[in-house]
Amino acid sequence: MQNLSMKHRCIIGFTLFSMFFGAGNLIFPPLLGAQAGRDTLIAMAGLGLTAVLLPVLSVMAVARHDGLTNLVGSIHPVLAIMFLS
């Protein structure tokens, strides 16, 4: 694994932020908190799991396999072609 310069780290960080942050991440959490009432901690845990942990794990899985084609191709090559089309 290569060391990245600060410039490349900032570019990658901004790219990942812009990929995963959208209006749903800005509007949905306050609405969820307002509607959760007594179950706010459970709602926060679920939102953290689905909005933070799962995207991070998916990026890590794709990076570990050197791309989405290799990741899906490890299941079956035809599936990779169909899935990525």
Question: What labels would you give this structure?
Answer:
85 residues, mainly alpha
Secondary structure elements and pairings:
Blueprint: H1 6-20, H2 23-36, H3 40-64, H4 68-73, H5 77-84
Question: Could you characterize the architecture of this molecule?
Answer:
By secondary structure, the chain is mainly alpha-helical. Helices cover 80% and strands 0% of the residues. It contains five helices and no strands. Helix 2 (23-36) runs antiparallel to helix 3. The radius of gyration is 17 Å and the shape is extended. The two termini are 29 Å apart. The model has no long low-confidence stretch (mean pLDDT 88).
Mean pLDDT: 88
Low-confidence runs of at least 5 consecutive residues: none
Strand percent estimate: under 5%
Give me the Rg, rounded.
17 Å
Q: Structural class of the secondary elements?
A: mainly alpha
* N to C succession of SSEs: HHHHH
Q: Can you count the beta strands? A: 0
Number of helices: 5
| Multimeric status of the protein | single chain
Distance N to C terminus: 29 Å
Characterize the biggest β-sheet: none
> What overall form do the CA principal axes indicate?
extended
Helix content, binned percent: over 70%
